Amino acid sequence: MFSQSDHQDAAWKWLEFLSKPENVAKWTYKSPTGTELPPLTSLLDSPDLTQTKPILQGFADLMKCGVASTVSQPKFPRIETILNEELSKAIYGDASAEEALQSAAEQGQTILDH
Question: Is the pTM of this model over 0.70?
Answer without folding.
Answer: no
